[in-house]
Queue: 4 jobs
Job 1
Amino acid sequence: MEKVKKYLHRYFIDAMGAMALGLFASLLIGTIFGTVYKYTGLEFLNVIATFAKAATGMAIGVAIAHRLGAHPLVMFSCAAVGAMSNAMGAIVAKEGGAILKWAATASDGSGIFYAAGPAGAFFAVIIACEIGQLVSKKTKVDILVTPVVTLIVGFAASWLVCPLVSYVMYYLGMFVSMATTLQPLIMGIVLSVVMGVILTLPISSAAICAMIFSEAAYGVALLNGTSEGFLLAGGACVAGCCAQMVGFAVISFRENGWGGIVSQGLGTSMLQMGNIVRKPVIWVAPTLAAAVTGPISTMVFKLKCQGVAAGMGTCGLVGPIGVIDATKEPNAMMWVGLVLVCIVLPAVLSFVFNEIMRKLGWIKTGDMKIDA
């Protein structure tokens, strides 16, 4: 059991967290540059955005390999593995969703090309990295053996895994977009609460959102006529993540002061995980706030988002920037909604819920103190 826990932690916490950093340093930062370019017209920002986004797979490959403690040759080879697995996938039939071609790299018009994206890169890079480590520094011709083995294993893993991953993500994205289109109130609550909780847990909400709300998933939603629901689902995720980060920043102000506001409000609510384990009730206020702001996002302000930004919340203000980027024509309603849903309501609601629990004696000063 201990070994199982060790590997689960290694792959689904350590590796996934590293994948989120790789996404942040490429796709996400590229999105930010692209958004700034849209409003400034500075062409060099567009160039940076284009190349940063193009390097997504490579950044994921290096980030995961580095976190897994890979030797240099394995790590550098994983850049190529990340690039190929991020791009590989399958051509899915426009009707019925059956896989028409395995490990395709482009559509021939017979169906929808659905890349495995970050999800495919996650699995393929882990496999290639672990096998590459087995041969690394074991021979006198390591400079040839290690890259060859890592790349061949990486290709094989991509060929076998990526179409399956793309198939799963195809249906997951379709479900989220259709469900949100049909039931924006319920899905607003569910997505906001679930994604907010994931953001606070030692799991990468950014990586998960990058998988679910990918460009390929959006393309499928467009064909199915559910693109509005797809983008609203991303907006609900932003609302939930912001509720956790802003909520914890505000309700723990007594203990952590302005440093806590910055570290949690612009950093991560994951800093409270140790306190949550000791006293789970402190998690109630921001989670309830997420349950309120999610449906307000989907039903009232109709905030939209897609990609990795949907799982970032107010970390570096990436979530709000993602909403701006996903809105074709930002208007006053969007700006008001953005401020209310991402900042004001999470702060006010979390504070009110928390004060009620303090009055009841469920929470005491010191329960949310962050260790320096």
Job 2
Amino acid sequence: MKIVIVGTAYPYRGGLATFNERLARQFSAEGHDVHIETFTLQYPSFLFPGKTQYSESPAPADLHITRSVNSCNPFNWISIGRKIARMQPDIVVMKFWIPYMAPCLGTIARIVKRHSHAQVVSILDNVIPHEPHFWDKWMIRYFVSSVDRFVAMSESVENDLRLFTSAKPCQLVRHPLYDNFGAPMTKQEAAARLDVDPSKTYLLFFGLIRDYKGLDLLMRAFADKRLDKENIRLVVAGEFYGNEDKYNALLHELRIEPYTLWHTRFIPDEQVRTYFSLADLIVQPYKSATQSGVTQIAYHFSKPMLVTRVGGLPEIVPDGKVGYVTEVSAQAITDALIDFTKSAPERFDKGLAEEKAKYGWDKMTAAIMNEKTA
């Protein structure tokens, strides 16, 4: 088939680009002709909370990526819709993650469908955003009405979709494994690269730091006097997408500076395996969530996880099998951390291996092409 993916890809960085590029490689491996149309402008600078949207890594040589889409120019949407239609694709894939993108993607989808035989399939990261605005529902309806079929990566997202359409088909496929960050290294090698003591127990909070991800809860949990700070360290690895000052103030208030490693910058792909190889437990203390790519990096590196009971996280992190599912409170997180430090982490190895096997990219491509998988 001829497949066009419309969405984030190189030179943009982050989880959306990683997902779309890995998906394109899977389609190519299965023999399909795949092309990515990415952005010339993804977000206006005043809407982007980070330091830069762009990757410093070399361009992927194995992918066909064209920069063409301007997210805030309606005339561009029309021309890109016509351009894609002229390519006569069989399927156009669009990832949907925030309502801001709905007018752009929804308009492109409508024009493609009007002028070609393509089906438009949307992979839903979120339907209702973590940080809502009053205009969201109109934008979501506009996008949903332009799509033929959906793939939701958690039950909570599928349920949110049904608030906007009851008729359109939707398949549930869990977020596939992020297996593109290289092989694990030993904890000793990772510790040497980061210049830390390999004998300590390391908790890893990884990814963009936003309020809904609950880093403040984790900091309060970590400050509990029942945890032996001489043997345990908290590693925060990711860029602030919010008010950095409040976390710095909390760090001083809780007096946990000597036990916390702050690597608060964007972590490039080639360094991801270092942080996950160092970690003993991946902690996601989210206050709200749908699913998370961090869990699928953790599965790739066979690392146990602690997640909170929100959104789709308990669906992909079975409590007691691959780690812990706690309530959204510092007390509950502390209780789980204490249990982890007093038990053998190897007890999760079998469960991690069993769950990891469920998350193949072939399941995602089959759902997009509306095929059945075992």
Job 3
Amino acid sequence: MSKPPFDSLDFAIDRDREGRCENQRRLSAAIDIDETKIHQARQVHGRTVVVANGNVEGMLEEHADAIVAEPSSLHAVGVRVADCGPVLVADTASGRVAALHAGWRGIVAGVVSAAINHLLSKNGAGSTRDFIAAIGPCIGACCFEVGEDVAAQIALVSAPEVVVRRDGARDKAWVDLRRVIRWQLRAAGMLDEAIDDVPGCSQSACTRCCAELFYSYRRDGDAAGRHLAVIAAR
């Protein structure tokens, strides 16, 4: 229901509230959740974790990049992206879930470990054994060009191999954001086989490359819409 140039399914919170609400209604119907329980926050590329409390409109004013929904609350949590990595995590034993907004600044700040540690603090077993995660559509290594200084910061909180290519003459590097997120999830204790890439790892899954499927801020700038990754507590 979004108006051009953000058509057709834009979930940005600061424009076209009527269109966003209708888009959320349609999404909720498609995945069988209560549209009035989707909690989101004002994302600031940090590591703050908040817990869904039932005040959906009020939480939109909270500054946070990870949102947790408690078991049996029936709350849903979501993050908006247009190149950054959306990460959904579930503790299948308890039903507790989290949604993470993982751009490079948030990754360097430690949003992934902050969210996993929060889930672990609520987990009586103190183990990620029952955790599963999905890394959603984000910019691919083919297009995620950054300065060498940024690449160094990212590699420092993951591994050198996440930097897949360098152009020394231009002081530029290309980083595999999916690999970074997966590395940090594994470093937090998750099993590799418990982490899914959605829709995959190929260049066709890159938000910047695939204009017919995905919004991309790198490609479209201020004309880019926002995707919404959402998960509901069991």
Job 4
Amino acid sequence: MKILRSLRARLFLIILLAGLIPSVGMRYAILQSYEDRAVTVRIADVQNQFKILANHLILYGYLMDTSSEVVNSELDQLSNLYDGRVLIIDQNFKVIKDTYGISEGRTVISEEVIRCFKGSSTTNYDSKNGYIEITTPIVNTVVSASGSQTEAEGDTKESLAEGVILSSVSTSTIMTTLEILNRRAMIVELIALVFTVAISLALSKFLVAPFERVTQAINEVKAGFTDEEISVNDYLETEHIVDAFNQLLGRMKVLDDSRQEFVANVSHELKTPLTSMKVLADSLMTQEEAPAELYREFMVDIANEIERENKIINDLLSLVKMDKKAADLNIVSLDINGLLELILKRLRPIARKKNVEVIYESIRPVTAEVDEVKLTLALSNLVENAIKYNKPEGWVRVTLDADHQFFTVGISDSGVGIPEEELEHIYERFYRVDKSHSREIGGTGLGLAITRSAVLMHRGSIRVQSEEGQGTTFFVKIPLIHLV
């Protein structure tokens, strides 16, 4: 049910059950304790009475002659007193007296009777039918005229009794008292239940109130009424939730600022070549008889600006593709050694123009599950940057190594290096370390952003070590097996 998913409803049920279950358990425990105590007292009382009766049976020789009016009167009195039935059984297991008068002359053989003949009294409480069955041995404890005792009281040795008193005692008074106590306890429970429900409602509302304030504050942020951090410190849990939301809110603000900056940068980068082309075109149009050499020079410049515009657009498209889910990866098992050799083969002509030596070092053969297109783009950007930002007569070293889980590509150069304060910004879109020479060197400022996205899509990592004027080293670490 939907209502049971509510924290308030669950708290209400927990508090209600916490108050109700002990109450019900206590009622049953008290009633059970009373019942046990009442039955124990009744058994002790009945046993005392029938021990006295057993002595009288021996004294009056009732087992031989059942005509004694004194004993018969006492039997009827006990039967009426305890609302029960009394049977006198002799040594032949025959009933010589039944206060109900229906079993006289019959033979009664049972485990309880046999044990009683050996001198052990037995009791059996039947709560379902409401009676207690008690056996009492009839033992001769009368002292003879010579002062000797024919049967010593408390003799620990087993001896046969002369007879057995088998009695059934009603527990109707105990049951009646239990019913009265149970009704009163239920009335108290009902009153307690009303109070427990009221307390449960109040407490559940009070305990959930901080969470409702959190929800209200988040809704206000969502609706745009405020963009300030929220604070609900009633509970440690609400404080954690609020802290997490405030961190998320801060992250969203950063992303929003980044998005606005990205849009501004894109607009500027796309507008700059267009502005240059317009200036060149306007210059040509204002000159009615411009020489052919000037036309050719301006058209070359216009073609270069078009190429620059095209490169920016292609890099933007690549970055958009990188921002998609990793599920878009086209994973294949690939020879990484061969891939690096192919990348370096394509880039060596550029290196030769700048007199930069490209060195490739493979520690061991490596095969991994990767997206060939995206990984090629990422590694190509790193190697191309190492060539572009190098010194004349410099070098670029590409090293491939692997362990049982990852392969690592290290790309080092002898170039200009990156200032320490700039290292944390190099992966930002359109960010350039040397803005004054960016137009001369070329590029769009998106290469490292594309590289980082491609590496992260492979669940890998990229880190950089650099010292200004001493060169830079990038380390790319990617799992050998792609995990979805």
